[in-house]
Specification:
The chain has about 400 residues and is an alpha/beta fold. It contains 13 helices and nine strands. α9 runs antiparallel to α10 and α10 packs across α11. The structure holds nicotinamide-adenine-dinucleotide and fe (ii) ion.
Length: about 400
């Protein structure tokens, strides 16, 4: 057998990606490529305390790049975080953004860079129809993204998920120019992610690929990327959860995460439709919520996706090449990496279900679900997921 290729590369789609252990050393070079002289580095408060950030600030300043830090970003970022960031960005006359962290920090950072020179409010750019054309593209600052989780793939995506606290809703803000110009994907930055978050974020990557693969519509590029992304998760997620220092498993998970967001240009589905309202109302972790909801939605979608799932089972090299074999594998993986079985364990109660079902039915991802799901169907899936009935 030929030796495996080293896990390093410079990739040019969906954007410029510098991939591999130690590649964070290319950050100053990336700033020079984009002409950043005074970038704003956006992270969250927990990350801002880690040495990876202070090391980066020192390294950039040594190269004459006058970087500043903004870290007022909460997990599941809210509009107030974006507004505060815009104020800092404008006051400091920053000329670019370094988006450093998990999906929360990267989403907030991308929204700050996007809003740098816009005159309309953030919610005018929600991902509805052609609302993105309202933006002035010349006023959008470039972004360098540095992911520290492997799940959302926000670093290779064209959207940010920001919570509207007045409406208790997660809104998707979209513009094609929100795709970061350069991504530095260094798996060494993910080794400190604790097992529970490794599991939840890793399942988010799998579910992005899975929902994109199952979404209706013709998009063979997306489907090809999705199936290989799922194979990488199948072979590496449990390894990364068990041993966070397994740099090979971490590397494959980071690639799979980016493949997920690349693939979901095709669409997502009801796993995300259930998880978005739960995250907005109960502030649960996004990937973990998806991972809990997944089997109930997959079962609901069975009539529309059975053939595709059997085809997928062959590519994943599962033991039993049937729909039930896939379900069993998924449940076993969830158990192995410590994902709870019910939404009740995340705090969802019967009294939440009316509101959550209504929110799920109008979530923008609901349209991509392979079986049409309105309020009653969403409620049925929620009831199953709260009670654990499959
Ligand atoms: N833009 C998109 O396309 C997209 C897709 C899916 C999800 N999202 C959004 O992304 C957010 C979730 O992002 P996430 O799952 O990456 O989690 P996160 O960014 O919320 O981070 C979770 C926690 O992990 C910590 N953390 C991150 N990296 C770490 C590391 N290397 N070591 C130690 N701790 C670390 C953070 O400080 C934080 O406390 C949600 O708001 C979700 O809605 C966006
Ligand atoms: Fe997601």
């Amino acid at each position: 057998m030929a030796p495996a290729a080293p896990l390093v590369g410079n990739w040019n789609y969906p954007t410029a990606i510098r991939f591999g252990a130690g590649r964070i050393r290319a950050l100053a070079d990336a700033c020079r490529t984009l002409g950043f002289k005074r970038p704003l580095l956006v992270a969250d408060p927990a990350l801002a305390k880690l040495s990876m950030i202070s090391d980066a600030l020192i390294a950039l300043r040594k190269e004459g790049i006058e970087v500043a830090l903004f870290s007022d970003v909460k997990p599941n970022p809210v509009a107030a975080n974006v507004e505060a960031g815009i104020r800092v960005l404008r006051a400091g006359k920053h000329d670019g953004v370094i988006a450093w962290g998990g999906g929360s920090a990267i989403d907030a950072a991308k929204a700050i860079a996007f809003m740098a020179g816009q005159t309309r409010p953030l919610w005018d750019f929600e991902d509805i129809g052609d609302w993105w054309t309202r933006a002035n593209p010349a006023a959008i600052l470039s972004t360098i993204a540095v992911p520290t989780t492997a799940g959302t793939g926000s670093e290779t995506g064209r959207a940010s998920v920001i919570t509207n606290t007045e409406q208790h809703t997660k809104k998707v803000i979209f513009h094609p120019k929100m795709m970061p110009s350069i991504v530095i994907a260094d798996p060494e930055l993910t080794v400190g992610l604790p097992p529970t978050l490794t599991a939840g974020t890793g399942m988010d990557a799998f579910i992005h690929c899975f929902e994109a693969y199952c979404a209706p519509g013709y998009h063979p590029y997306a489907e090809g990327i999705a199936v290989e992304g799922m194979r990488l998760v199948k072979n590496n997620l449990a390894r990364a959860v068990k041993d966070g220092r397994d740099i090979e498993a971490r590397g494959h998970m980071l690639a799979a995460s980016q493949m997920g967001s690349t693939a979901f240009q095709k669409g997502l589905g009801a796993i995300h439709s259930l998880s978005h309202p739960v995250g907005a109302v109960l502030d649960t972790h996004h990937g973990l919520t998806n991972a809990v909801a997944m089997p109930y939605v997959v079962k609901f979608n069975r009539p529309a996706i059975e053939d595709k799932v059997v085809r997928l089972a062959r590519w994943l090299d599962l033991r039993t090449l049937t729909f039930d074999g896939f379900m069993q594998w998924m449940l076993d993986l969830r158990r192995e990496i410590g994902i709870p079985h019910t939404l009740a364990e995340l705090g969802v109660k019967a009294e939440h279900l009316d509101r959550l079902s209504e929110m799920a039915a109008v979530d923008p991802t609901a349209g991509g679900n392979p079986v049409k799901a309105g309020v009653p169907e969403m409620r049925r899936m929620f009831e199953a997921a709260v009670s654990g009935r499959l």
